[in-house]
Amino acid sequence: STQILLASRPAGWPSEENFEVRTVELPAMADGQVRVRNEFISVDPYMRGRMNDTRSYVAPYQIGERIAGGAVGRVVASAAQQLPVGTLVTHQHGWSDTVQAAAETFTPVPEIPGVPSSLRLHMMGMTGLTAWVGLTVVAGMKEGDTVFISGAAGAVGTAAGQIARLLGAKRVIGSAGSPEKVELLTQKYGYDAAFNYKDGDVAGQLAAMAPEGIDVFFDNVGGEHLEAALGAFNDGGRAALCGAISSYNTTQAPVGPRNMANLITRGLKLQGFTLSNYLQHAPEFGQRMGQWFTEGKIAYDETIVDGIENTVEAFIAMMQGANTGKMLVRI
Length: 331
Ligand code: NDP
Known about the structure:
The chain is globular, with a radius of gyration of 20 Å. The mean pLDDT is about 95. The relative contact order is 0.15. By secondary structure, the protein is an alpha/beta fold. It has nine helices and 15 strands. The chain folds into two domains: about 150 residues, Medium-chain alcohol dehydrogenases, catalytic domain (Quinone Oxidoreductase, Chain A, domain 1), CATH 3.90.180.10; about 150 residues, Rossmann fold (3-Layer(aba) Sandwich). NADPH dihydro-nicotinamide-adenine-dinucleotide phosphate binds next to helix 2, helix 3, helix 9 and strand 15.
């Protein structure tokens, strides 16, 4: 099994030196274990936080430890009745090509014709559920709302834009970091308007695209985007604070929004959330998303990097914006 371990804690942007690629011989199978050959592994922004030794909602990775995280694969050897060879499973064992562990640590997933296994790591998995929970539960999005989504062309963002549209948003506005992504948002993902935040003046661009203001903000980015949204909010606006990727790789503290008083004058509600506290919404989401998907209403993109040994490169590239939709490593 080839695995990727944390070798040292990155300061600012991570680099290959912060990781070690190690190949180990897997032990003989013990009773109750299965061996899984991964098909795809996920690289996610939250993993950057776990590389720091700071308090967060999940414990930091330890030096010398395999990077844990989402993956999907198939059982290739089984000493557990409930997971026979050939079963498709998702799990959290993370960055390795093959894993062997107790059967209970794997979740079998139904194989739906026309649904590639990789979708279990995004549109029909964690990032899709994050978008659903953020919009419907945290921000309480209603039909007729104008919704602004930052980081709109990424895995969570492409799901959030489509869900907002399908739930009857009046107007969906997105921001992303390249002209190609901006075009994709309006051409493929049903956004009414989109802008490139790298052109600057995020507040001005947002105001121009939301002449009647925004009601819901789904934030993946933080910083300047959050300040812009606070300026664009209508009375009673709600934000689901999902991520703040603009500050994950910086060494200075992020700039706080200078217009927090708008919360008072406009009666705004900002709520942060982490998916781990909302997993009870997975069945409802699975049903809705499955239905939309089979009706052909869901588009998606994947940016795929091949080979376990290129996982670190994929992870860094994702945070630099190389991905459209979900960044995945194919094993
Ligand atoms: P993405 O697929 O969106 O990939 C990350 C993207 O972030 C890049 O493609 C890049 O796109 C963008 N980005 C990087 N730096 C900046 C910057 N300085 N300003 C603006 N955009 C930037 O990742 P995910 O969909 O997996 O995650 C999106 C967000 O959701 C993250 O903040 C993540 O932490 C959060 N998240 C939160 C969860 C929760 O439970 N709260 C669960 C899952 C994700 P571009 O080219 O547009 O710059």
